[in-house]
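Reply to dn_fold:

You asked what the input looked like. This is it:
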Amino acid sequence: MLISRRNQSEEQRAQVNARGRAVYRERRAQIRAEFADNQRPNYRQGRVPLRLRDQMEHVGFHYDPDCDYSLHGAIGAMDIICTHCNAAKFRGETAGMCCSSGKVKLPALEPPPEPLHSLLTGESPTSKHFLQNIQAYNSCFQMTSFGATKIIRDSFMPTFKVITLHGISSETFDIFILQIQGQIYHRAGSLIPFADADYQFLQIYFIGNENDQLNQRCNIATGTRREIVLNLQRFLNEHNELIRLFKIALDRMPSDNHRIVIRADKMPMGQHARRFNAPTIDEVAIVIVGEQFESRDIVLHRRNEQLQRVSELHRSYDALQYPILFWRGDDGYHINMRLINPTTGQETSKKLSAMNFYSCRIMIRPQEDNYILKCRKLFNQYLVDMYAKIETERLNFIRFNQAKLRSEEYIHLRDAVMNDANVNSIGRLTILPATYIGSPRHMHEYAQDAMSYVRHYGRPDLFITFTCNPKWNDIKCHLFPGQSTTDRHDLTARVFREKQKAMMDLIVKLRVFGEVRCWMYSIEWQKRGLPHAHILIWLVRKIRPDQIDKVISAEIPDEEIDPQLFDVVTKNRIHGPCGAINPTAPCMIDNKCSKRYPRALVDDTITGNDGYPLYRRRSAEDGGNSTVIKVRNQDVDVDNRWVVPYSPLLSKIFEAHINVEYCNSVKSIKYICKYVNKGSDMAVFGVADYQSIDEIQQYQMGRYISSNEATMYNRAQHDHRGQH
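and this is what came back:
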């Protein structure tokens, strides 16, 4: 090749070069056409093209306002269809996240007939009212009470505010639940109350007069409409097989000494495994006297003041609590469900986990009407409730397999002292190992990994906080009519996960800030339920102080030069404003901004003493820009003092709240692993037996779960990762 080129004339060389440039332009045009429908390159499927990496390497230091970088932040359409279950997925999502590659096979949920079908569409004023108050309507008909160790209410995530031994206080059903702490439990009472007691939950179904039954349901939840409650009452009495089962069983009970036992595992003989038939009651529910039942069975008395906790592993656990979602009384998850051999279609000996079951259940399938996804706040409550079931299943495995986990290796004096335990309790600890994501031991191990990076490679170069933007088109385009992003936390979690992977690909594989030596991140959830990732980046070539202004900006861009970045910064990168302008802002503590805004205006970046520099923030006299934003319906002038530091490249690509800081010390390591240093809220719970330490119980009692977090964990997506 070299000889032939050496023998070429200048004209021949020019022609060869022209053909090469034409091929290169044609290839670039093909790439742009390929991703014109918002498809991003799937770097994870193979090696990154060297030409693409060469084009993007160090672009973070040389941001060009005229270049279009948006293709690198696009996650593509949800057009990848699973060949086994027809679930729709994004290009970067794993093949088995929906049905474990054909090993999970669930029957499709049958769309509800009228009137429930019209109420779930969200088109008419009546439907909009129903969906806005769907939790209240569900509470009118639920057959078990809902309870938790603590149910949180604050200004961001309003939740139930009163909890009793019988469940949630009736006057607070108009408030929706998105976040709980501790353990969730469902309780069932007797079928008939005593003479001086009110009818509650399942007992309401046995009120003989339809109008009295209606009055009792409307008294439970304020804000409901009688005509809707009446139509749903008739609808469930006609279609719900569980209600039929209870009524037939009650007629067979000769005295208060008899009990109804609903088997946790048995199915009607000769019928589909997930469909009830009331006439075959002897196999599903039996009337007994004595103790002829298993621990997971539901045992209902005719009259009794005691409440029974319904096992999370009972197949009717979901249908008893969510009659709006499971209007036929369909079975949910139970412990004896089996995985399917995708080749033969036959059941295997391996049991199906709760995570696999619910991950498959909440997937989007274009060919099916998964009406559960239309149920808004009730769907969010269902996500939290079912994740609590998944977590309980995992923790129970650990509890009952302490010998296999060799827990005796953990039991020594140091553990006893760290847990404020009595020395006499050594040998009687229940251990939650480091392999359980989010456990104290896991977080301690994660902190040690972070410090080992610092010990080997020095301080990290960049500390990036990437927050989900609920206004992303990737989320909004998959919403049902009338829905907002707060109604579909399953979409929010999935899109953020793909965006976060796209950012890591951009930084690690395309080297926009240079070659990466190692990295780590931790995902957390805001009070509003939005996920955000804390990312630490170690670069092979450290960022010099004179390069900070090329990578990080704390100024408002020029609207005429870069209108897109100006729009992103003014919407996502302005702090507050707070102070005298907005004294009730969340950052205000003792009449001062806890984030130290507004910052000082400086002409040049100065390395600070607290781990982060004082970034360049020029005044209007020195060429800085300002803009006008609305605060409490008032126009407020803001300048560079209110700008949160950002990377122009990342902000323009992902159009989200992305805070980028230059690290001067290892303080950011402590921040990203703050859960290691933050102890449990000891006022939340008390340990009954002080002679033994149960780490699993302590973890459950101090655990907070939001619906967004539940969606991500339902699909086994880890919130901590690191690599070098």
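The radius of gyration is 30 Å.
Hope that clears it up.
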